[in-house]
Amino acid sequence: MLIASDKFKGSATSQAIAQALARGLSSTRAGIATAAVADGGDGSLEVCESLGFRRVHHEVEGPDGAPVRAAFAVDDAGGRAFIEVAQACGLALLDPSALGSPGYDAARASSFGLGQLIWAALDQGAVRVIVGLGGSATSDAGVGAARALGARFLDADGLELEVPQAGMERISRVDLSGLDPRIAATEFVLAADVTNPLNGPEGAVRVYGPQKGLRQEQLEAHDALLRHCSELVESELADTGWAGAGHGLRTGAIAGRPGAGAAGGLGFFGMAILRAGYRSGVDLLMEMGDLRHQMARADVVITGEGRIDSQTMTGKAAAGVARMARELGKPVVAVCGRNDLEEHQVRQLGFERVFAMTEVEPDVSRCITEPFPILERIGAGIGQYLLERQDRLT
């Protein structure tokens, strides 16, 4: 059997979960293979390290301007790098109490640190850079990241602005001539499962802004600001044809693409400035790990994530594993901390059965702080279930 679980955020890594389940399954005497999976967000560096990437640390500017010791993964032999946006400008880097405080302005949270990480990855010799979008604290459409890479944002007097902190409403012109020339020679891929455009009712600000600290009364104006900035960037691309990206470009063509609104508009930044492709995060990481080949040799697949709910159905790692297993005709069992789905939704995802930790241990805090004994018991339960399943089928 194959255990391919995502991490349980704030509780256990993918590898540790697999090991605990395997201990519980030991009585089955079945051969057990394990693989780490993620959806392009938190946990993706762990997947990369399991594939032979090395972790590199680099100090960058966090979303609030404070220094952050961020990490990314490098594959020296393949010339690849994997960057998690959340490492440089993630919501988790901020004090939760600050988000709702009068002194914090989410509209000025900056993605500058992401640009610094991209620069560092290029310094490491990467010629293919994957940027995992997710968990960002920013809604700046990547102006901070672009500025770190050499773009200039100018006011009406031609003076350079330190945006977004200086106020994106002051931007009158964008100059991309100073962008790091290595960008044009590098392949960039955005990894995410968000399909929102940059602007409008389903855009970055309206859908995700409130969870990043934007107040309700800020949403309309900030959405308009991102539209203004994206139009200036697209206009500059159309005028200069930066790296062959823009000649004949129609205004709004990039901002309206599915995924442009991912990570507070960093999807737009990647598509426009980095000329990046856009891939499902879980599909890309499963492909990198050759999971299909491993799964083809398994009789049963066990996957999981911290919480199985409506978000699971929108492209999370466990759903991606289940989809691949279904294509290969393999039965799938899921493990989670908590299951919020109805039985018909579980079936719709392709799970034959869901084992939730809260069904074994009702104390949620203990499930989070002491997960491994509970996961071992679940592993034993899965083993018993599979034996009974085999008896029914014979």
UniProtKB/TrEMBL annotation:
Superkingdom of source: Bacteria
GO BP terms, alphabetized: organic acid phosphorylation
GO molecular function list: glycerate kinase activity
InterPro entries with a match to the protein in the record: Glyc_kinase_flavodox-like_fold, Glycerate_kinase, Glycerate_kinase_RE-like, Glycerate_kinase_sf
Keywords: Kinase, Transferase
NCBIfam families associated with the record: glycerate kinase
Protein family: Belongs to the glycerate kinase type-1 family.
Protein name: Glycerate kinase
Lineage, opening ranks: Bacteria, Bacillati, Actinomycetota, Actinomycetes, Micrococcales
